[in-house]
Design goal:
mainly beta, 4-stranded antiparallel beta sheet, two-stranded antiparallel ribbon, 37% strand
């Protein structure tokens, strides 16, 4: 599963968001030109992630999970 977003005529994407190396790519579909523009250093979980680019293409925004989990509590003699 990959993450992607579109800004103008450019597609920005991450191919393997759960992998150790998460390179960010920029693709211009009209010309086919593709370039690696950087990488994301922190864990990005595919099931809860979103990717966005600023209107001028200067900033890439993404979500990352600090902690995923749940608490299970047992209540005895509950009525």
């Amino acid at each position: 599963m990959g993450l992607w977003t579109v800004s103008g005529d450019v597609v920005y994407y991450i191919c393997a968001p759960d992998a150790a190396a998460r390179p960010v790519w920029r693709l211009e579909p009209t010309t086919g030109k593709k370039a690696r523009i950087g990488s994301i250093p922190d864990a990005v979980r595919a099931e809860s992630a979103e990717l966005s680019v600023g209107p001028d293409g200067r900033f890439l925004l993404y979500t990352r999970a600090e902690q995923l989990g749940a608490d299970l509590m047992l209540v005895e003699n509950f009525r």
